[in-house]
Amino acid sequence: MKVLFVVLLVFVIASSNLCATECSTFDVVGYGATGNGQTDDTKAFLKAWKDVCGATLQTAKLVIPRNKTFMLQPLSLKGPCNPATIEVRLEGTVIAPKSNGDWKFLDEKNKWIEFSDISGLVIEGGGLIDGQGAAWWNIADVSIRPTALHFHNCKDVRLRSMHHKNSPRNHISIDTCNGLEISHVRITAPMQSPNTDGIDISGSSNIFIHSSIIQTGDDCIAINSGTSFVNISDIFCGPGHGISIGSLGRNGDDARVENIHVRNCTFLGSTNGVRLKTWRGGRGYARKIVFEDIKVVGVMRPVIINQNYLGLLDGISAVKISDVSFRNVKGTTGSDSAVELNCDPYVGCNDIVLDHISIVKEDGGEAKASCSGAQGTCFRCNPIVPCLSDSQLT
């Protein structure tokens, strides 16, 4: 009997060690996570991630089960990992510490949950990420606030089917990534919450964002320097500050953005619709950009190019804006303004095309367009954009 017990004990230990490298599913509860919404479950998540990342399998799955709430301190889930695909099943709820004084930062204070140096990551499951950011919003001017979900140097990532709310700052940050798709997500924060961008993209390429609802206190989506080949479609934005390229060229920086396509998006009651914003004194370019099939409802500033965004530097340099099209933009403005093209007097904006623009005031009255320093054409535009060539009768 004693021999049998020893044999069974050895088998259990061996099986446990084998599971750390061979099992396909890793549930955070099995690693000690309580999921009661109060206990710090960070260590359990890190232990589970270590086994997921080290698994000798083609596909490994990290499960965050439903009907549980996991409180996490800032953590970094790092690669490179062995599996070709890692699936994170976010079925339950993940929350940040409620009070900003309860946060335990690792080093930098600008991230809560980070995925870095990972290929083939899939995050889905219908769960919730709650940044509990209200305590941070009141000290926005005097404190560094963390991004809720940060992707750094990742490749072939899919994020879908989840709700993300109330980040201390921007909700999702994409930095130095290649091949990332976000779909069927809902991102929400109060209209007054400062700098709570939905999705920020920097230094990345081949990004596809579609079929999602974003309602926050700042940009629904912001595209920053070093970004190219971005396709955005079927987004509902509002409240918020619209879909923005920039700001670019701050502090004289050399900014580069190109090959951006935004289509079939709806803006409801947002501060802005679609816009480019660059700082005076910056360098570089923003080019090969298309906004098309855009619906605006009560948007304060539907179409904007601002090459002098908060410009404090004198001189003749500016981020070069060229080959930008706004096609089939229709709806209502919540102000008098429909189109604003404010281009630098020295550098200007070239090859600007407005095609089938129809924007009126909410009461049906005529809206206005302002334009300076821009060169291009306007085809069937209402209102007429004064500094562009009028092709309405052709």
UniProtKB/TrEMBL annotation:
Superkingdom assignment: Eukaryota
Signal peptide annotation: 1-20
Keyword annotations: Cell wall, Cell wall biogenesis/degradation, Glycosidase, Hydrolase, Secreted, Signal
Localization per Swiss-Prot or TrEMBL: Secreted, Cell wall
GO MF, any single term: polygalacturonase activity
UniProt keyword rRNA processing, yes or no: no
Keyword Secreted: yes
Protein known as: Polygalacturonase
